């Protein structure tokens, strides 16, 4: 009993200290991210929408910027067939989710962070263009917009104006008050909320995000410290490094969890030296955050959703194995 209490006290004290140490770094990072989203959110999403054949390149470059909900917006745009499947994959693969705030808070060298983010952008572009090329070869590239179908699915009481949107999808973005815009571009409400509250909204949103991530970090740190205390750090490291291939498959599986906790776990394990670079890379490639949840909700074709999620997992594993074979350590 004394041993259990000693371990509990040691784990909790370490978890509290480690979590509180990260709070100021996290808040400053999220404050910057919220400000960027407030200033550039619509422009970023419009750039992806208007990119056409260059969509995967634009999606990968903009996706790596840690904007809240960008992967979710991309999933919604794909459900309406406003962007291509390749662009969706490019965004999912490049988006950094919670990786960047964690790495910055843990003071990972900037050149190391830049190399990881750069690699994610390159992979996102490459796989996005390959997917679009495959769709063209399969003659499934040109698909009609499904904005009206998306509206019906959300049961928002779409009227005749949606027929106009269906013919001219530009209207969906230019007129946020339209029914179609309300269904397919939900982020407008988020941006207008920022406009209403100004800096107060930005400060509160950053604080809320920091608290949410802080709770995740604390719980994960408690779990990791408990495992390390019981199993032993050296033994745990041996388990995860004894089979690098299996660690890649496992990390990619964790990355598919549609929650910021996935990228937090992977980033923490990597910073702690428990997870190798190839496994970290595989897991963070597939960490699309809530984008996967939005895809399942908005895209009515469940077979497509299963194929997209399965393809995303396969891409993450494949590139993790490539990184392992090439000895990439970032």
Q: Describe it for me?
A:
- With 330 residues, the chain is an all-alpha fold.
- The protein contains 17 helices and no strands.
- It is globular and about 65 Å long.
- The relative contact order is 0.13.
Shape: globular
Q: Sketch the major β-sheet.
A: none
Which percent band covers the strand fraction? Answer: under 5%
Mean pLDDT: 76
> Helix amount, in percent?
over 70%
Radius of gyration equals 21 Å
Topology, number of strands: 0
Which residue ranges are poorly predicted, with pLDDT under 50 across at least 5 consecutive positions? 154-196
SSE sequence, one letter per element: HHHHHHHHHHHHHHHHH
Number of contiguous helices = 17
> Terminal Cα separation, in Å?
44 Å
Structural class: mainly alpha
Question: In short, what is this structure?
Answer:
The chain is mainly alpha-helical and 330 residues long.
Which keywords apply here?
mainly alpha, single chain, 330 residues
Write the SSE topology.
Layout: H1 2-49, H2 55-63, H3 70-79, H4 85-94, H5 99-105, H6 110-137, H7 147-154, H8 161-167, H9 170-174, H10 179-184, H11 187-231, H12 233-242, H13 244-255, H14 260-271, H15 277-285, H16 291-298, H17 302-326
């Amino acid at each position: 009993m004394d041993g259990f209490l000693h371990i509990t006290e040691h784990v909790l004290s370490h978890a509290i200290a480690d979590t509180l140490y990260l709070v100021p770094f996290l808040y400053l990072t999220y404050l910057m991210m919220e400000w960027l989203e407030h200033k550039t959110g619509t422009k970023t999403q419009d750039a992806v929408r208007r990119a056409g054949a260059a969509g995967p390149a634009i999606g990968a470059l903009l996706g790596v910027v840690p904007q809240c909900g960008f992967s979710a917006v991309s999933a919604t745009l794909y459900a309406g067939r406003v962007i291509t499947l390749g662009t969706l994959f490019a965004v999912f693969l490049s988006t950094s989710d919670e990786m960047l705030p964690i790495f910055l808070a843990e003071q990972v060298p900037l050149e190391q962070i830049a190399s990881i983010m750069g690699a994610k952008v390159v992979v996102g572009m490459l796989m996005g263009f390959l997917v679009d090329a495959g769709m063209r070869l399969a003659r499934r590239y040109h698909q009609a917009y499904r904005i009206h179908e998306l509206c019906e699915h959300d049961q928002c009481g779409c009227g005749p104006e949606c027929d106009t949107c269906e013919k001219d999808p530009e209207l969906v973005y230019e007129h946020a008050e339209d029914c179609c815009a309300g269904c397919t571009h939900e982020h407008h409400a988020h941006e207008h909320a920022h406009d209403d509250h100004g800096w107060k909204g930005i400060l509160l949103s950053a604080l809320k995000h920091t608290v949410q991530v802080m709770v995740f970090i604390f719980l994960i740190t408690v779990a990791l410290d408990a495992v390390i205390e019981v199993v032993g750090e050296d033994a745990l490291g041996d388990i995860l490094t004894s089979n690098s291939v299996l660690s890649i498959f496992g990390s990619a599986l964790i990355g598919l969890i549609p929650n910021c906790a996935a990228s937090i776990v992977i980033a923490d394990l990597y910073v702690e030296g428990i997870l190798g670079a190839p496994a970290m890379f595989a897991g963070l490639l597939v960490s699309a955050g809530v984008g996967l949840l939005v895809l399942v909700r908005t895209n009515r074709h469940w077979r497509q959703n299963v194929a997209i999620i399965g393809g995303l997992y396969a891409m993450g594993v494949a590139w993790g194995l490539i990184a392992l074979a090439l000895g990439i350590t970032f």
